[in-house]
Design a protein that fits this description.
The protein is an alpha/beta fold. Helices cover 51% and strands 12% of the residues. It is built from twelve helices and seven strands. The strands form two sheets. It has a five-stranded parallel beta sheet with strand order 2-1-3-6-7, with helices on both faces. The longest helix has 14 residues. The chain starts with 20 loop residues before the first strand and ends with a helix.
Length: 250
């Protein structure tokens, strides 16, 4: 029996579209990644030149395909998408970035913008909105949902987060990543190994998280983290399950 091999970083199509905008799709869900790619490739002015499932392969794909824009998920195998955004911004400043994610925009959208993205759209949105967001980012504009746009403006004008803001939103990107891993059942040592940090550094982050969330003990931290993860749709979605965008792209 012959074993079939597949590659995650795809090569540019043989029939290249003349003057089409070059798009890289980065997502660790194969079905969704393929659905989004098919959606984009149906457009005359857009062409997917590569796909990647994790941060390392995304960087390799950018180096080899030189896309104009990258469509990136926040949750990726082995790393946080926010860190990938920062890396791309530093190494490839001309590549525009749009985040397409299951994660709650109220927690992650402003983090993505700070990291270098030009827009944030949730996977529950229809496929036509993904194309709208993509073209808006390519025009040099910022894409956010109306609700999130109002929250950002409120913060800029008022100098503080709007009423009802979760204390979790006050965590730094690294603290939020560790908080999420705690809620998924990881202990200090596994977190340190996964994030390539020292145990002392992880313990320091845990202390800061407790302080910001007004928690007194390690047990309270774990319980609070578990409760938060259970309400975060992206962290409860079975790996490989595709969202609305992929379904609408067929």
């Amino acid at each position: 029996m012959r074993t079939m091999q597949t590659t995650t970083v795809s090569a540019p199509p043989l029939q290249a579209k003349k003057d089409a905008t070059r798009v890289l799709v980065v997502d660790d869900h194969p079905l969704l990644r393929r659905g989004v790619s098919q959606l984009i490739d149906q457009e005359r002015d857009l062409q997917v030149v590569g796909e990647a499932e994790d941060a390392h392969k995304a960087i390799t794909a950018i180096e080899s395909t030189r896309p104009d824009v990258a469509l990136i998920d926040i949750s990726l195998n082995g790393t946080c998408g926010i860190e990938l955004l920062k890396n791309i911004k530093a190494r490839f400043p001309k590549v525009k970035m749009l985040v397409l994610s299951m994660h709650d925009e109220s927690v992650y959208a402003h983090r993505a913008l700070r990291a270098g993205a030009s827009g944030y759209i949730m996977k529950q949105e229809g496929s036509e909105k993904v194309l709208v967001a993509l073209r808006k980012v390519l025009r040099g504009e910022v894409y956010l949902s109306e609700n999130m746009g109002n929250r950002v403006l409120h913060t800029l004008v008022g100098g503080r987060a709007p009423a009802g803001t979760s204390p979790v939103e006050e965590l730094s990107d690294r603290e939020l990543e560790i908080f999420s891993l705690i809620g998924q059942g990881h202990g200090t040592r596994p977190i340190a190994e996964k994030l390539h940090l020292s145990i002392k550094t992880v313990e320091s982050h845990r202390a800061h998280i407790k302080e910001k969330l007004n928690l007194q003990t390690a047990t309270e931290l774990v319980h609070h983290a578990i409760q938060w993860v259970q309400t975060e749709p992206a962290l409860n979605r079975p790996h490989g399950e595709a969202g609305t965008v992929a379904a609408g792209a067929s």
